[in-house]
Amino acid sequence: MMKLVKSLALAAVAVSLLPTATAGAAEFYAGKKITCVVPYAPGGGTDSFFRVVVPHLARLIPGKPDVIINNMSGAGGLKANNYASNEMPNNGSEMLCAPWLSIAQLTKRKGVRFDYSKMRVVGGESAINTAVINKKVLVGGDRTTIGKGSQPLVVAGLSPSSTLDLRQRLGLDVLGVKYKYVPGYRGSAKQIPAFMSGEVSLLGLNYGTYVSVMKSSLVDQGPGMLWVDYPKIGADGSASANAVLSKQGVPTLDEVHKKMHGKPPSGPHWEAYKVLTHLSSMGLSVWLPAGTPDTAFNAIKAGWEALPNDPAFKAAHEKAFGKSVNFVNYKGALAAQNAVATVGPEMVKFFQEYIAQGEK
Amino acid sequence: MFDAVLIGLSQVFSWPAIGYLGFGIFLGVWLGALPGIGGVTGLILLLPFTYTMEPVSAFALMLGMFAVTTTSDTIASVMLGIPGTVASQATILDGYPLAQMGQANRALGAAYTCSAIGGVIGAVVLMFSLPVIKPILTLFSTPEFFMLSLLGICMVGSLSGSSVTKGLVIGAFGMMLGTIGEETFNGEARYYFGIEYMLNTPPLVAVVLGLFAIPELLELATKNTSISRVPSDQSRGGGMLQGIKDTFANWWLVIKGSVLGVYIGMLPGLGASIVDWAAYGMAVQTTKGENKFGRGDIRGVIAPESANNAQRGGALIPTLTFGIPGDFAMSILLGAMLIQGLRPGVEMLTTKLDITFAMIWTLIIANIASAILLMMLGRQVAKAIFVDGHLLVPVVILFVFMGSWLGNQSMGDLILMWIMGAVGLFMKRSGWPRPPLIIALVLGPNMENALVLSNRVYGTLGWIDRTPSLIIGVIIVLTIGVTALGLLRTRRTPLTANNSLDGKLSIEGAERNPLIAIALALFFLAAFVTAGVLAIDFHPTNRQYPIATSVVAVALLIIILVKEMMAARAERRAFASYAEAWRAALDKAGMRLGLRFVLWIAVAVFGAWLIGQKLAIAGFILAYLCIWGKRSLRFALIYAAVGYLFIELFYDRTMHIPFQHPYILKLIGGGA
């Protein structure tokens, strides 16, 4: 009996506390405004993603604050990251909504003044990484014949230090294929005409961009097809295929390797690729500056974690990007944040040298 | 297809789309007229409101607004000599001298008419191009984009007024500015100096506003005059009807300008910033017989204004058909399409063809409606040219400051605007043409990027025998030939400020002041030598372009210095010493007051950093009206308060622009 009384009393206390906590979070943002600092100009992939997210996030954060976007473009995204790490007010009024530039921090890119380890990650999304390849690079559409077709294999890159470029190069090096890497194709305005005219033959992208912008011009009207699925690598070293791509018959990188060489991939490029998948396990992400009060942090986190199950958001995202979003919750984001610290100095040196090679 | 045309039209005329279109046109007229704002800012402003709209309504609002900013931007270009948007820079060359002659209404009438015609032509070409555009687009690869940029750079000659050598040096200076930052093939930051701001290429808007606005504002502030150098009762032949007649009399130029605008819009990377200069250059090069380009020739208004409206339609072609955003504005529209669930490409030409046609109708209706609306308002607008200059300076300063700030929200942009203002002042007062700097700043980075990519893909100059490149190469040779012939003609009738209105007109590159020109030449020489030396440490690929540019510029500067020194020696004979000659040169150029004005702008920039823009701009207005304008404190206070309120309500509350965190708050521990 006493046990029951105790349990009931505890339950009563818990129930009485529950609305108080929610009310506390709600009170914090009621009637307030949050500025979502996006490091690129309006219209691009990052901006479009957060423009779809923001109205729903505003609705789902307790207290229903106004959430507005501030495009703080400059220095290839460094400006906004530097701002968030060093100057952003830590009272919950602003948050960084940006691609996770882990490689830039790790390789000490010029201009980096930010340190993710000192910031508070809220969550993120995980992109499906793939590429489009010109069919003429292959023989009869067989991916294992890459580089043997009538067209030379020329990879259109953004910049040697970009995650997207590192992934393409490491992937081809894992397969042992000869290719020409040409960085400097910044933006779809340069990439699409170059691909359509046959000037370049491999273009790395994420699946959302592919479906929403590039599929029609590169594949439906152009000479391209999806190249491979760049798989995520688990803690045990196993590669996992993406269901969306495998449904379309797109093999993973390691599967192509097995077909080409009769064994699973290995070697320094594969090791670096595995590290890269951890360093890019989160694509777009939300960060708060160090010292942001828990009430504000928890409210934004609650909003972010409610998004994946919100029907209105899911519909809006599918309408814009033609697929459902793969959210990374707080726990996953924290693990990603911590992964940076686990990269050893030798691997950092490898990446620095690999980036330098791409500049030659 | 015909069904889709009609369905598109009926969708635009259905409610609420037609209401949004009307609002978009109204907003676009307003935003275009304010210097430094323009269509891109308008798109950013409207984008969040379109999330919940139906696609036709969303694009009626956005495209309705966007299409007409290039019509109303003429107002600032003609009335103030300050480009209303980047698409109307060339209009100032002849539009402003027309206003100074009291013929603003004529210039505006012509501009509105040809803008409407150009806009409609752009939309019609868009309509007919959709099914056949692929072969044209796939014809152009990176080498062709390099050659097209080179073709654009070749127009520097025809935009340099009477001094091509100076124009080439200024073009080289624009190219060097374009090398700042990390827009290199490998992301290497050139001329970085550890300053985060220097990781970016200087933004065009801040450069344009500084270079053109500050010197013109100084004219108004120091000459104590209205924009028109003739009183309203003495202005003749300047009616709006005359402008409309001028447009139809030059119908072939309107067609040529429009078609050029469409094709420039269609080719990614060229876009709005270059279209007006290209059309202006084309007009100068293809006009036979006597002309007054740079001195108030109406054809200098008609060509760029036809082209910049037509460019809008052209830019939509690759955006809708292939998802290729030709410029920044098209990137935003592409983002808006995604949010609306529209996919560029086949879908827009098949299942969503009606929406595509609704967009085309929106362009047509908006261009015609805005021209009619602006003509109705024209008489009132044109009266501003007779308003006391001191009343215009504060309001224009407000727009110049906020326009420079809008793009990146960086103090660096305000400082850049100020520096370019000071440089622009020296350039204007000593006969250095300013347009080549802009054209080179826009095209330079594209040109270098395309050259580097072409050489890496095809091997060094391995692309030169590509047929499309060869064709553009022939056009380049022809352009240079035509420019050279034009220069020979101009030499016979030299362009000077003294051959009309007693030197009162603002004519690009026409003022002569050898000692000031020498001072500026030495400044450029130091800048090029320093830039060239610093470039030695860059990556081999990244150093070629700045070093080559520096070497050419230094050689040209030596020629200029020799020429100007000879002229200075001739002037020196009239004075007892060089010191006296120098003082006389400063007086002739009005540099004492000029530098004082530049100092005032510097204080306002510093004030923006210290106490934020709202108070700094209001403070500038107050002080300017009391000290320069000699107005009563009460009047100045009311003007400053209105300025403050405008910033608060429009830029802060409506546009949600983040402002500079006042440093003073940091000092007292109250700010972030």
Q: Quaternary status of these chains?
A: heterodimer
Mean pLDDT of chain A: 87
* Approximate shape of chain B: globular
Give the % helix of chain B: over 70%
Please tell me the CATH architecture of the largest domain in chain A by its name.
3-Layer(aba) Sandwich
Largest sheet of chain B: none
Number of distinct beta strands of chain B: 0
Count of DSSP H/I helices of chain A: 14
Percent strand of chain A equals 15-25%
Number of domains of chain B: 2
Number of helices of chain B: 29
Mean pLDDT across every amino acid position of chain B: 85
Largest sheet of chain A, order of strands side by side?
2-1-3-12-4-13
What fold name goes in the CATH topology slot of the largest domain in chain A? D-Maltodextrin-Binding Protein, domain 2
Structural class of chain B: mainly alpha
Unreliable runs of chain B: 494-502
Mind explaining what this structure looks like?
The complex is a heterodimer of chains A (360) and B (672). In chain A, strand 10 (232-233) and strand 11 (239-240) form a beta hairpin. Chain A is built from 14 helices and 13 strands. Chain A is α/β, with parallel strands linked by helices and 360 residues long. Chain A has helices spanning 2-29, 45-60, 78-86, 102-106, 163-175, 188-196, 207-220, 243-247, 253-261, 268-279, 294-306, 311-321, 330-339, 345-358, and strands at residues 33-38, 66-71, 94-99, 120-125, 129-134, 154-157, 180-183, 202-206, 224-226, 232-233, 239-240, 284-288, 327-328. Chain A has 2 domains: 27-125 and 281-350, Bordetella uptake gene, domain 1 (D-Maltodextrin-Binding Protein, domain 2), CATH 3.40.190; 129-279, D-Maltodextrin-Binding Protein, domain 2. In chain A, helix 1 crosses helix 11 (294-306), helix 2 (45-60) crosses helix 11 (294-306) and helix 2 runs antiparallel to helix 12. In chain A, the strands form 3 sheets. Chain A has a 6-stranded mixed sheet with strand order 2-1-3-12-4-13, with helices on both faces. Chain B has 672 residues and is mainly α. Chain B has 2 domains: 2-491 and 503-511, no CATH class; 591-667, no CATH class. Chain B is built from 29 helices and no strands. In chain B, helix 6 packs antiparallel against helix 7. Chain B is globular. At the A-B interface, helix 2, strand 2, helix 3, strand 7 and helix 6 of A face helix 8, helix 16 and helix 21 of B.
